[in-house]
Amino acid sequence: MRMMLSIWLVTLGFLATTSALDNGLALTPPMGWLSWERYRCITDCVNFPDECISENLFFRTAKLMATEGYLEAGYEYIIIDDCLVVQRERQRGSTTA
Question: What are the boundaries of the signal sequence (predicted)?
């Protein structure tokens, strides 16, 4: 009898339902483009003009998001990574973690 009760309790535990607001929020995760994911910390715009983290890169990315359908797919953020600080710290001779 105890065994059967334990089985039923475990079964009912797996059948637990969840509830959420049906307000249309968070149907997808926040979606955006993060410069670090592709370009890491390339800040040498002299030797790598198309691949360095710069104003040009972010404008180009924003234009592509608008024209290539990323906005319609739910992308809405362009995240400027803090790698922009790396160049300044390299000039100072300090290190970054």
Answer: 1-20
